[in-house]
């Protein structure tokens, strides 16, 4: 009898031991898998990486304006100057879309473009139902697409003999006229490069520092969240050292910290994430083009 009980106890002990070993092994495998996924940088299926988000035309077009203030009313949230800046720089225009018409009395080249180039860009960025009073763009300035190869002419930079073969790209233009009947715009080429949004207050110090948080898909919606801090930096001495104030908001009402920086130093936003602004940008998928378009953005 004792022998039987002993055998039963031994059997129970073995079974318990096997269960414990199995649980430990399963726990180890689960933990290893979890750590492996974390270290491999794989995102959940409903999230996009920063690299993937940066390929979205609408995101590239609106992100700089979204850093400045909340944009809760779609296309109407942006000024004509802001829209003008977006349309060709981030749109899909090509050099052959610009037709040379002539020159002004100051020998500046005049180009014409079809209205559809503007409306196509608007629909790409703001959705198939977006509309805008295109006459508001007259008088605004913008830049050509970053891949443009349109060359400046002697009318802009003077004698061709002096320039020889050293032709430079012209990257700017002004909307000078909107012809509603012929559905065309006239653009006057302007010299010099520059953008509406200048990230630099100096050669080294940015006026704002952005941290990509995450991009989450939910059905046909995409929500991108970013952290932002805003800087007010001034030269401290002749060696280009800086005195900087770090703010939570672009209006610079909520001071986070004052810091001194050398020219080669930058601001690590991750030190200030808890006190930074949270920018939330919402997009929706256009099922016909399979491209996301802008819906709204907020800063809190």
Describe this protein's structure:
- This protein is α+β, with helices and mostly antiparallel strands and 300 residues long.
- The chain is 28% helix and 30% strand.
- The protein is built from seven helices and twelve strands.
- Strands 1, 7, 8, 9, 10, 11 and 12 form a seven-stranded antiparallel β-sheet that branches. Strands 2-3-6-5-4 form a five-stranded antiparallel β-sheet.
- α4 packs across α5 (115-126).
- It is globular.
- Mean pLDDT is 79; it is low at 151-170 and 193-204.
Task: Give the overall shape.
Answer: globular
In round numbers, the mean pLDDT is 79
Give the distance, in angstroms, between the N- and C-terminal Cα atoms. 76 Å
Tally the beta strands. 12
- Tally of discrete structural domains: 2
So how many helices?
Answer: 7
Report the portion of residues in β strands: 25-35%
Estimated radius of gyration: 29 Å
Low-confidence segments, given as residue ranges, are: 151-170, 193-204
Main sheet makeup: 7 strands, antiparallel
Sum this structure up briefly.
With 300 residues, this protein is α+β, with helices and mostly antiparallel strands. Helix content is 28%, strand content 30%.
Layout of secondary structure:
Layout lengths: L1 H39 L6 E2 L1 H4 L3 H12 L11 H10 L9 E5 L5 E6 H12 L14 E3 L10 H4 L2 H4 L8 E8 L4 E7 L17 E11 L2 E15 L6 E6 L7 E7 L15 E10 L4 E9 L1
Antiparallel strand pairs: 1-7, 2-3, 3-6, 4-5, 5-6, 7-8, 8-9, 8-11, 9-10, 11-12
Helix pairs in contact: 4-5
């Amino acid at each position: 009898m004792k022998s039987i009980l002993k055998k039963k106890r031994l059997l129970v002990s073995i079974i318990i031991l096997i269960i414990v070993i199995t649980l430990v092994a399963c726990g180890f495998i689960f933990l290893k898998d979890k750590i492996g996924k974390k270290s491999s940088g794989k995102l959940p299926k409903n999230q996009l990486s920063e690299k993937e988000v940066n390929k979205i035309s609408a995101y590239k077009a609106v992100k700089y304006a979204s850093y400045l203030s909340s944009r809760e009313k779609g296309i109407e949230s942006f000024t004509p100057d802001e829209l003008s800046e977006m349309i060709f720089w981030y749109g899909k225009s090509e050099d052959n879309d610009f037709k040379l018409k002539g020159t002004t009395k100051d020998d500046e080249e005049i180009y014409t473009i079809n209205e559809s180039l503007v409306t196509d860009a608007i629909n790409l960025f703001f959705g198939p139902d977006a509309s805008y009073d295109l006459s508001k763009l007259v008088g605004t300035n913008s830049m050509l697409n970053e891949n443009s190869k349109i060359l400046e002419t002697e009318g802009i930079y003077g004698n061709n003999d002096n320039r020889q073969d050293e032709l430079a790209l012209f990257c700017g233009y002004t909307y000078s006229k909107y012809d509603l009947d012929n559905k065309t715009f006239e653009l006057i080429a302007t010299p010099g490069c520059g953008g509406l949004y200048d990230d630099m207050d100096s050669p080294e110090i940015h006026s704002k520092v952005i941290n990509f948080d995450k991009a989450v898909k939910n059905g046909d919606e995409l929500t991108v969240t970013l952290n932002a801090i805003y800087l007010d930096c001034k030269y401290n001495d002749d060696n280009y050292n800086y005195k900087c104030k770090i703010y939570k908001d672009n209006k610079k009402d909520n001071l986070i910290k004052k810091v001194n920086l050398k020219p080669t130093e930058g601001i690590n936003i991750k030190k200030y994430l808890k006190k930074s602004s949270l920018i939330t940008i919402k997009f929706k998928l256009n099922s016909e083009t399979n491209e996301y378009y802008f819906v709204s953005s907020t800063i809190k």
